[in-house]
What does this fold into?
Amino acid sequence: MSISENLQRVYTEITQLAKQKTGQAPRVFHDRDWPSPCEIPNSVENESVAWQQVAQNGNMQALEKALETQFPAALQAYFSSFYSDNLFASYQDHNLCLLQAWSEQDFDRLQQNITGHVLMKRRLKQADTVFFATCEEDDLLLVMKLEDASIWLEYLGKEPHHKLADSMEAFLADCKGLYYTQ
It folds into this structure.
C-alpha cells in the first residue's frame, strides 16, 4: 500500500470508531479563525465541527531549497497527500499523533516548524531528521532520518535512539487508527 493509501486507511479506521462510539463522523474543536477544507459543511455544534480528509497536492520544494537538502519522496507524500486533522493511531506499544496539515495555512506553519527542527539539529551537529508524529511521552517524537528515510524515536534535541521501521510505508502499514471522544 502507498503512503496515501495507508493514511486513508488509518483515517477510515478512525471514522469507523467515531461512528461506533458517537454515531457520527470524527469531530474537532471549531475555530472560526482557522478554517479548513476538511470541515464538513453545516456540522458545527457545541464548538466542534465534523471533519473529513481532503486530498491536497502541496509540495515542500521551496523548503528543500531553503534548507539546501532533499526530502525523501515518502516524506513528501506523507505531508502532501491530504489535509486532515491529526490522526491518532497506535504502533506496537506506542499511542501516537500522526501530524497532518489542517489547511494550506497550517501546511505553511508545519513547514516553518520543520525548518526550526532541522536548524536545531544542525546547530547541535546532529544528522537531519524531520518529525512527523508525537508520542504520549513529552518531548518524544517520531522522525524520519533524511539520509535513508528510516523511522525512529527521538527525544527533542537528541539523536534518534530507537529504530521503528525501515521506511514510512512499513511504519504506516502497522499503524492502527484510534478515536478519542471530544
Residues 103 and 151 are 25 Å apart (CA to CA). The chain has one domain: 3-177. The helical segments are 3-22, 61-67, 73-80, 104-123, 168-173. The first strand starts at residue 27 and ends at 29.
